[in-house]
């Protein structure tokens, strides 16, 4: 295993040297520097199994490392978050219960209002029917009164006609009585033989 690592390190160093030669930099500048070797070693893929076939050299492998104790979330934070979630759930349940109770009260009030409105509508219908009946009665009474008035007018006219006839008869009687008195006076003024 170590021989393969050394071989890989040499290959990477050689590639780095060739790259620097292309750019005009000296190839062995960081060859003895331990930081330089650490940088090269950091780019090696540690997750893949070591085999005769290696991955492509220009690919940068991902590095996975376990989280340290300092970067892990404390247990009390999990407990606090869980408590907050439970509290939030309880608050939501209480709010839903309050909404349901308020909804029930509102629906009962609406039912009561509906009953009152139906009672009012029934009263209005009864009043309209009574008003219609009273109108019909008034119209019947008006028609009856008109008939009575026309009958009275006819009777009055008939009586007027009778009175005219009577006054003619009285005037005839008066003229006849006057004639009779006139003749009686004439006979009374005549000497008796």
TrEMBL record:
Segments crossing the lipid bilayer: 76-101
Annotated region described as Disordered, given as residue ranges: 47-70
Signal peptide: none
Polar residues bias: start-end ranges: 51-70
InterPro entries, A to Z: MCEMP1
Alphabetic keyword roster: Membrane, Transmembrane, Transmembrane helix
The keyword Transmembrane belongs to this UniProt entry's keyword annotation: yes
Protein name per Swiss-Prot or TrEMBL: Mast cell expressed membrane protein 1
Gene it is expressed from: MCEMP1
């Amino acid at each position: 295993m170590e021989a393969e690592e050394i071989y890989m390190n040499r290959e990477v160093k050689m590639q780095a040297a060739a790259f620097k030669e292309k750019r005009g930099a000296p190839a062995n500048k960081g060859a003895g520097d331990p930081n330089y070797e650490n940088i090269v070693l950091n780019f090696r893929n540690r997750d893949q199994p070591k085999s005769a076939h290696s991955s492509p050299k220009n690919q940068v492998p991902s590095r996975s490392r376990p989280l340290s104790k300092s970067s892990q979330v404390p247990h009390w934070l999990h407990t606090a978050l869980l408590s907050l979630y439970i509290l939030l759930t309880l608050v939501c349940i209480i709010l839903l219960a309050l909404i349901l109770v308020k909804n029930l009260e509102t629906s009962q009030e609406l039912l009561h209002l509906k009953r009152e409105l139906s009672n009012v509508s029934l009263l209005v219908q009864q009043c309209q029917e009574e008003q219609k009946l009273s109108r019909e009665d008034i119209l019947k009474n008006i028609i009856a009164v008109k008939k009575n008035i026309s009958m009275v007018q006819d009777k009055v006219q008939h009586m007027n006609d009778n009175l005219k006839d009577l006054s003619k008869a009285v005037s005839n009687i008066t003229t006849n009585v006057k004639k009779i008195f006139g003749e009686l006076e004439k006979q009374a003024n005549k000497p008796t033989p």
